[in-house]
Amino acid sequence: MKTYADLKLPVRTLLGAGPSDVDPRVLRVMATPVIGFFDPEFLAIMDETMELTRFVFQTENEFTFTLPATGTGGMETALANMIEPGDRMVVCVNGFFGARMTEMVKRLKGELVTVEAPWGQVVDPADVERALKGGKTRVVAIVHAETSTGILQPLEEIARLAKEHGALLLVDAVTSLGGVEVNVDKRGIDICYSGSQKCLGAPPGMSLITLNSRAQKALASRKTEVHSWYLDLGLIQRYWAKERFYHHTAPASLIYAMRESLRLVYEEGLEARFARHELNSTALKAGLEAMGLKLFAEAGHRNPTLTTIAVPDGVNDANMRGKLLKEYNIEISGGLGQLKGKIWRIGLMGNSSKKRNVIDVLAALEGALRSEGLKAPSGAGIAAAEQAYKG
Q: Which of 137, 292, 336, 349 is most exposed, with the fewest beta carbons within 10 Å of its own?
């Protein structure tokens, strides 16, 4: 069996839909010695992590912490704790991850009502309102930044409608938190979760979650137990709270990494971080269009952390992405579900969101497209991106 040194894993530039590049500071902190999960020093790290998690969610919610699960685990945790058998739930579906929510609701035996929009377009609040008028609804669930399409969904109007109809608003912020404004308290989001590996720039394996007082009251008033003991937020919260009730063995190294990545967000500042993601996204999109590539997501609602492009006619999706990986050491993602083979997804998230990466991926795409026989205007993409940086 090969040793780790023998594996000689390549150093990639991760510009796909996640994970993103991990900052060297975060990688170094993972080598910190593991200590017991009741050690006073570790409990202090947990407290700091909670404080930083509130900062990035922009919330005062006490019920805010990380979970030993991926972003999908965060999704299932949020749904499992808010839904009981027979509860009516409105799920907004305009991409792969909204559709994944519907599968979870079915397994939880909830009464599922879907509000659908074409993949690549935003959900219309008027359609949500019609669904809410159809019956007493427990939860409205929506994806803020749909990773499969590159859409950034406006939330304010849907949040207002949910509150008017006495429903909780549950938001997936896996591809938005730390890259664009989520602002849980200002928007009136009741339950919000995210993942460690995208705009926050930590390794995969952790999720973050926050519940306001309305969501906590709903959790406390459940008539049935949460179907999963491991994902029961009431039990997990007792470990993170002052009670420190044992629930699971905390993944110490991942919590070290999460804390350090959140410290990086804090040091940069949210407004500066949002502006960085917006600028790099604008430059990338300008470069792609100058190369003759077509952006996929609906204009006016394109996510600054992940850009989607229609695969040009006559170009093989898998071959192109393979060429970028093998010849340029750059990873981008293909489409999911009904968009498989039809779009490319380029992520500029967290530590991956930088000018050098924008220029490198534009140059690599031009070279790879030319090798496939497509006439990409020489240097046009980089010139357009540079112009965007100049303003």
A: 292
Calculate the CA dihedral of residues 240, 244, 245, 251 and round it to 10 degrees.
60
CA–CA separation, 247 vs 326, rounded Å? 44
Mean pLDDT for the chain overall:
96
pLDDT tens sequence across 69-104 = 999 999 999 999 999 999 999 999 999 999 999 999
> Which CA distances in Å does 292 have to 15, 123, 177, 376, 378?
20, 28, 31, 7, 11
Query: Do you find a cis peptide bond into 19, omega within 30 degrees of 0?
Result: yes
Q: Which fold has domain 24-267?
A: Aspartate Aminotransferase; domain 2 (3.40.640)
Shortest CA distance to 333 belongs to which of 103, 96, 102? 96
DSSP conformation letters of 46-91: HHHHHHHHHHHHT---SEEEEESS-HHHHHHHHHHHH--TT-EEEE
- pLDDT tens by residue, 201-210: 999 999 999 9
Report the distance separating Cα 331 and Cα 61, nearest Å.
Answer: 37
Distance of CA 173 to the CA centre of its chain: 5
Torsion angle in degrees (nearest 10) through CA of 105, 184, 166, 237 = 60
Secondary structure class of 275 (helix, strand, coil):
helix
Q: Are strands 139-143 and 88-93 parallel, antiparallel or unpaired?
A: parallel
Superfamily (CATH H level) for 270-390: Aspartate Aminotransferase, domain 1 (3.90.1150.10)
Maximum CA extent, the chain = 64
d(CA 335, CA 296): 11
What is the rounded CA–CA span in Å between residue 73 and residue 20?
A: 18
